[in-house]
Amino acid sequence: MNSRETANVDEPRTVSYGDVEAAAARLANRAHRTPVFTSRAFDERAGGQVFFKCENLQRTGSFKFRGAFNALLQLPEEQQRRGVVTYSSGNHAQAVALAGKLLGVPATVVMPEDAPRVKLAATRAYGAEVVLYDRAKEEREEIGAKLKRERGLALVPPYDNPHVVAGQGTSAKELLEETGALDLLLVPCGGGGLLSGCAIAARVLSPGCRIVGVEPENADDAARSFQTGVLQTVENPDTIADGVRTPSLGRVTFPLVLRHVDDIVTVSEEAILRATRLLWERTKLVVEPTGALAAAALLEGAVALEPGGRIGVVLSGGNMDLGRLCALF
Amino acid sequence: MNSRETANVDEPRTVSYGDVEAAAARLANRAHRTPVFTSRAFDERAGGQVFFKCENLQRTGSFKFRGAFNALLQLPEEQQRRGVVTYSSGNHAQAVALAGKLLGVPATVVMPEDAPRVKLAATRAYGAEVVLYDRAKEEREEIGAKLKRERGLALVPPYDNPHVVAGQGTSAKELLEETGALDLLLVPCGGGGLLSGCAIAARVLSPGCRIVGVEPENADDAARSFQTGVLQTVENPDTIADGVRTPSLGRVTFPLVLRHVDDIVTVSEEAILRATRLLWERTKLVVEPTGALAAAALLEGAVALEPGGRIGVVLSGGNMDLGRLCALF
Questions:
Q1: N or C: lower Cβ tally within 10 Å for chain B?
Q2: What CATH architecture is B17-62+162-328?
Q3: Annotated catalytic, A316?
Q4: Average pLDDT, integer, range B312-316
Q5: Are A322 and B277 within 8 A, CB to CB?
Q6: What ipTM does the predicted assembly reach?
């Protein structure tokens, strides 16, 4: 990829495995190569071997750092000086804030007023300017577009961008390099950035692997979009998985999901809670409800499992208020 | 060490680094080689480099598996067939239960009625018989001795045993093999098994390293014993660190602590809570309050820190009811 041809980070185009490889080279020594955990408790429940890719242990506490850093690094110098703006329910915000700090790029972040306190605080702690909005009355995309126009900032969208998708795909690349071929890869799905990036990597690194996205029943736009082939939306869905309250797949991610993903399944709120708790108790890992979506699919039997199968599960993030956790349980 | 000479696991004797090495060889591929985590948030607070040895990620969720497995493996065959008994506030119980299951040794565990629910359930799930007692009215040592006598069981004490001490020392051995020399090693202290084992290993592997035990202010018997050189006791201390509610250091561990440890410091209940929470939020690790003791010493400034120092911190366990956590905060 020639960075001069892709100066505008919002320009839609497709993403190849070569883009994921290039992103991995850029992220080397900047992002963590997150560990892969196993758990006898989950192996027993799944009747196979489960490999957890621990993106909750990534810098800023989620996979989002991968895509944000990859995108910011490819801005022209002049744009890096002016800065970037993004909108996010939380994890992408922290990711852009830290990537901006590391690269000297001023970052402005549009966040909902009711975003988890720990995420607001962390975003500010990384030195970003936070602009709050009311999820019920305003559209974050509009606010982002306004700031972009008025301040000359580059928009770094949370998922619908080829550089972001390529960055997120490095997570599955690392996982498969460590585990070897898998039979099944389960990935949380909100806007589809992580899912499509991981699918692109898995297609090449583990050709026989079935790639399945997981979203909450209460925010099943991606599953409906996948099944009908027509982009479906959802508005302010009521789910504890606050990281996937996105309105729909995107212009970049929807075609990639249709092309590279085998299925999208949904899980109940109860299954998400159970998975969050079981991960907490048995792997000793703090995983936020959104991050536990793929594990919930295993527990709920939302996907057909071959006995003895090798299953990759992406734990996408771990940013959760302790107060919020306790309110949930 | 010749196992035929040490058939009785309660026989007191001293422990050398050679015993720790022998234990490490026995534990290879049976215990996890637990990971070492770092955290920028803790580095900043400590003004140095902090290395967390994650014994919360050990089998059964604490370091206790190391000592229990090492002790059971050295029983004569005849005794292995008859079985073992132990008493424990929780983590040692699970450790003996799993070690017994893996080695085919029937395990009976004496546990307080008010032990954390998750620990009772896990001990039973590993196939051990659980005998409950009332902490306010009964002495667990007496109940254990009675079962030993009546059923011909071997007693595997939670800390006051050379094989147990040698097993626990493998934790510091692994840590130092990974980090190289350290300036300071902080280790939680209850009965002193983990502390003395780690000190024996650190003396050899990092000769200049200052070795400091950490216990709650509310259960400061080891600190007082260390300072006076005379064994002090404490009765049913009121601390959230339920793993170190032990009455005193032991016949085996007290001399080892006096000989190999540089200091024992205490931390407040508030500092233990703050450390538990900060570990939770910043490292995404579930660490029980007892397991957070050494991290609390860093946060509370209970030990003098050299700027830029390299500090090892043993996170000793992660078994905690979610309900209990929420009640604490």
A1: C
A2: 3-Layer(aba) Sandwich (3.40)
A3: yes
A4: 98
A5: yes
A6: 0.87
